Amino acid sequence: MRRTVVKLGAGPACAHVGAGYADGVAEGLAHPLLGLDQLLAMPLRAWTAPAVFLAAMSGAVALAFVGVALPAMEGMLALSALALGRMIVFGAGLPGIAGIGPAGLLALLRGHAHASEAAGATFAYVGGFTLSNAALHQFGVGVGLKVASSPWLPTGLGMMVARSGAALVFRG
């Protein structure tokens, strides 16, 4: 019998702790737009989930700055993309409020990871990635409103996100 093991100790999920030197507002602005895991994690529901996401992400930054550690960060970030894709595919009948808790948890992971990799001009970097995430979520809401009207596009997008998340979880 063949077993598959989920790597909770996975390598960087495209742009997190230990992946490089993160410093200043320019890198903070660019970071959420360049990481595959960031683009896969955009909530596609209206404004509540993005607002909760940004608030939880900011709270997680504070936790990281005071030294609170979160275990298995990279593996959890990778699993979050897989879980998000499955939610998109199978959660079509759920009310929009059902996405708020998962969005907050995902933001907790991301905010902590971003703050943990910050060096140098840390507050400028945090401000940059927070503004960039807000813009990315605004774009995601616009796309989500268009996607939701299609009978097949949400399922196709969800499957793509889930496959990409699985690739992050099970890679090498």
Can you tell me about this structure?
- With 172 residues, the protein is mainly α.
- The protein is 67% helix and 0% strand.
- The chain contains seven helices and no strands.
- It has helices at 24-34, 36-40, 48-65, 73-90, 100-117, 122-148, 153-170.
- α1 (24-34) packs parallel to α6 (122-148), α3 packs parallel to α5 and α4 packs antiparallel against α5.
- The longest helix has 27 residues, at 122-148.
- It is globular.
Could you outline the blueprint of secondary structure elements for this entry?
Elements: H1 24-34, H2 36-40, H3 48-65, H4 73-90, H5 100-117, H6 122-148, H7 153-170
Helix pairs in contact: 1-6, 3-5, 3-6, 4-5, 4-7
Stretches where pLDDT is under 50 for at least 5 consecutive residues are 1-15
Main sheet characteristics: none
Total count of strands: 0
Distance between the termini: 20 Å
β-sheet strand percentage? under 5%
Rg for CA atoms:
16 Å
Tell me, rounded to a whole number, the average pLDDT.
74
- How helix-rich are the residues, as a percent range? 55-70%
Number of helices: 7
Order of helices and strands: HHHHHHH
Q: What structural class do the secondary elements suggest?
A: mainly alpha
Shape: globular
In short:
Helices cover about 65% and strands about 0% of the residues. It contains seven helices and no strands.
Q: Which key features would you list for this structure?
A:
172 residues; mainly alpha; 67% helix; globular; disordered N terminus
